[in-house]
Amino acid sequence: MSRRPFAFALAGGFLALTSVAWAAEDNTITVYKSPWCGCCELWTEAVEAAGYKVAVHDMEDLSSIKAQAGIPDDMQACHTAVTGGDRKYIIEGHVPLEAVEKMLSERPDIRGIAVPGMPQGSLGMGDDPTAQHTVYTLGQNPADPPVPYLETGQ
């Protein structure tokens, strides 16, 4: 095989592998939220502005989504999101982008992350970088206790 066809074959193989790798790294975040919640809309817009593809499902009642995801009552917030290619993760509430990016790059053995309630200054709730709140892990087993994953505003 001469050098030119070999180089084209090598480049074609690399592009094919890159396409497969990109498909496995899906950057879509699917958000389940109330159609009337302004803070959820702001969180969704910030996620989209950060470069993620966002699919929104407006729902009157999110209790079935939260139950299906196994989100404990004390970790629940106003919206629930799911992301990940071959490895799915739950994002519950006003989770900051830095926590989402950390989770997706580290790919920990957890179901997801959560910011319970609606803390003032969190993403979608004023987006104050000095606001202090904790992002918790949701363990593989829904009975696992939440563990601090990231502290903001420190």
Quick structural summary:
This protein has helices spanning 3-24, 38-49, 63-69, 97-106; strands spanning 28-33, 53-58, 80-83, 89-93, 112-115, 134-138, 147-151. The protein is an alpha/beta fold.
Any overview of this molecule?
With 154 residues, the protein is of the alpha/beta class. 33% of the residues lie in helices and 23% in strands. The chain is built from four helices and seven strands, in the order αβαβαββαβββ. Strands 2-1-3-4-5-6-7 form a seven-stranded mixed sheet, with helices on both faces. β3 and β4 (89-93) form a beta hairpin. It is globular, with a radius of gyration of 19 Å.
The low-confidence runs, each spanning 5 or more residues with pLDDT under 50, are 3-24
**Which bin fits the share of residues in helices?**
25-40%
Number of helices: 4
Q: What structural category characterises the helix and strand content?
A: alpha/beta
Task: Tell me the overall shape.
Answer: globular
- Please, what is the average pLDDT? 85
Rounded to an integer, what's the Rg over CA atoms?
Answer: 19 Å
Largest beta-sheet details: 7 strands, mixed
Distance between the termini: 59 Å
Order of helices and strands: HEHEHEEHEEE
Order of strands in the sheet with the most strands? Answer: 2-1-3-4-5-6-7
How many beta-strand runs?
7
Strand content: 15-25%
Secondary structure topology:
Layout: H1 3-24, E1 28-33, H2 38-49, E2 53-58, H3 63-69, E3 80-83, E4 89-93, H4 97-106, E5 112-115, E6 134-138, E7 147-151
Parallel strand pairs: 1-2, 4-5
Antiparallel strand pairs: 1-3, 3-4, 5-6, 6-7
